């Protein structure tokens, strides 16, 4: 049950808004595979009898990123679709039912069809929220921006990103209005407006790409790993809930995590992939022959009774192997493999 408890604790602490959460796994010694969570500099929750061992993999966990889109129009459609593709949880606020329906058809996780001020009161907001204001007029922009800044003060937390679409003249007018409403210069400087990176975007799709280029740039400046996305946590929970027979057809799985990287390996430390008994997988650690080797080891752990439940393995992919696989990079990675569902 300790594995289940660990993943459940991550989910619960994330829902509670626990800051500075770090996950650690013991890599060797009698307690290899044991886990604990840290909050700041102090241990908060332990999952194992002791922390004996010379190696520990630690990763600062980011929360699941949430995209909060204000307004539905031509630019909003590709923003929603790209957000879903990048595994953001997408919430759209729109006060017109017809346009709210368009957001639903575009695949938004949640659509709140209310006046913007009322809708914002129902939306989740925190350090992993990326807010994009793309309404139909500057008076709505003002309402949305002021509402975001006011809720940040109320909650005592700030969004990771607040961006607003508009010309320099229009965004300058909104900034001046925020000053009149008593918003500090420090808060106003956090606003990304005009929104997006300056890549000469013209079409709605190009503008959406420029916006996400800026969001990704800011998101990846944080010193944290990919962590445990909601979809991954749900799949791990499923492995515990459906079947424990080592020789059966349940949903036991192996979680593969990159714990070190050398050279030009394609994915970073903390990248995760879940390999199920039936050979399907959720996520990727880079593809090609390196990923294939990891999957083979994972399936052996699931299918052979004498296999360990926890293993650290190295994969060395030369430049020639990478070229033969049609990839542009090789390098070495160390991968931590742990069975879930037992």
Any overview of this molecule?
With 342 residues, the chain is an alpha/beta fold. It has three domains: 1-62, no CATH class; 66-219, Rossmann fold; 225-342, no CATH class. It is built from eleven helices and 15 strands. The radius of gyration is 23 Å and the shape is elongated. 37% of the residues are buried. Residues 67-215 form the XdhC Rossmann domain. Residues 249-303 form the XdhC- CoxI domain. This is XdhC family protein. InterPro entries: MoCofactor_Util/Proc (IPR052698), XdhC_CoxI (IPR003777), XdhC_Rossmann_dom (IPR027051).
Helix-strand layout with pairing:
Layout: H1 2-15, E1 21-26, E2 35-39, E3 42-47, E4 56-60, E5 66-70, H2 76-85, E6 89-93, H3 97-106, E7 110-112, H4 116-122, E8 129-133, H5 138-155, E9 161-164, H6 168-180, H7 185-189, E10 191-192, H8 204-219, H9 230-241, E11 253-262, E12 272-276, E13 281-283, H10 288-303, E14 310-317, H11 319-324, E15 331-340
Parallel strand pairs: 5-6, 5-8, 6-7, 8-9, 9-10
Antiparallel strand pairs: 1-2, 1-4, 2-3, 11-12, 11-15, 12-13, 14-15
Question: What attributes does this structure have?
Answer:
342 residues, 3 domains, six-stranded parallel beta sheet
The general outline is elongated
Helix content: 25-40%
Q: Which regions contain 5 or more consecutive residues with pLDDT less than 50?
A: 244-249
Radius of gyration: 23 Å
Q: If you consult CATH, what is the topology of the largest domain?
A: Rossmann fold
H and E string? HEEEEEHEHEHEHEHHEHHEEEHEHE
What does the main sheet amount to?
6 strands, parallel
Quickly count the helices. 11
Mean pLDDT: 85
Question: Assembly state here?
Answer: single chain
Number of domains: 3
Give a count of the beta strands, DSSP E runs of length 2 or more. 15
CATH class of the largest domain: Alpha Beta
InterPro entries: MoCofactor_Util/Proc, XdhC_CoxI, XdhC_Rossmann_dom
Pfam family, one: XdhC_C
Domain XdhC Rossmann: 67-215
Domain XdhC- CoxI: 249-303
């Amino acid at each position: 049950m300790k594995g289940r408890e660990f993943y459940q604790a991550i989910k619960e602490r994330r829902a509670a808004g626990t800051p500075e959460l770090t996950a650690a796994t013991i890599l060797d010694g009698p307690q290899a595979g044991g886990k604990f969570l840290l909050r700041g500099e102090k241990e908060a929750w332990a999952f194992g009898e002791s922390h004996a061992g010379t190696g520990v993999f630690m990763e600062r966990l980011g929360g699941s990123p949430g995209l909060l889109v204000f307004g539905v129009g031509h630019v909003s459609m590709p923003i929603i679709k790209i957000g879903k593709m990048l595994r953001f949880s997408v919430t759209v606020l729109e006060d017109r039912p017809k346009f709210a329906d368009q957001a639903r058809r575009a695949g938004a996780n949640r659509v709140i069809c209310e006046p913007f001020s009322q809708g914002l009161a129902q939306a989740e907001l925190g350090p992993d929220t990326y807010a994009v204001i793309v309404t139909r007029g500057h008076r709505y922009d003002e309402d949305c921006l002021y509402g975001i800044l006011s809720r940040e003060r109320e909650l005592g937390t700030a969004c990771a990103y607040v961006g607003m679409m508009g010309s320099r003249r229009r965004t300058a007018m909104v900034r001046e209005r925020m000053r009149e409403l008593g918003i500090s210069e420090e808060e106003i400087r956090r606003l990304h407006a005009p929104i997006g990176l300056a890549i000469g975007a013209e079409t709605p799709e190009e503008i959406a790409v420029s916006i996400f280029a800026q969001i990704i740039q800011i998101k990846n400046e944080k010193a944290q790993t990919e962590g445990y996305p909601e979809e991954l946590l749900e799949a791990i929970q499923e492995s515990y809930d459906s079947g424990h027979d080592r020789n059966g057809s349940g949903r036991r799985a192996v979680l593969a995590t990159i714990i070190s990287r050398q050279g030009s390996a394609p994915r970073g430390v903390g990248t995760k992939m879940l390999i199920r008994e039936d050979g399907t997988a959720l996520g990727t650690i880079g593809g090609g022959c390196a990923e294939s080797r990891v999957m083979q080891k994972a399936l052996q752990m699931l299918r052979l009774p004498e296999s360990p439940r926890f293993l650290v393995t190295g994969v060395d992919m030369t430049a020639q192997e990478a070229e033969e696989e049609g990839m542009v990079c090789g390098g070495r990675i160390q991968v931590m493999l742990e069975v879930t569902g037992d």
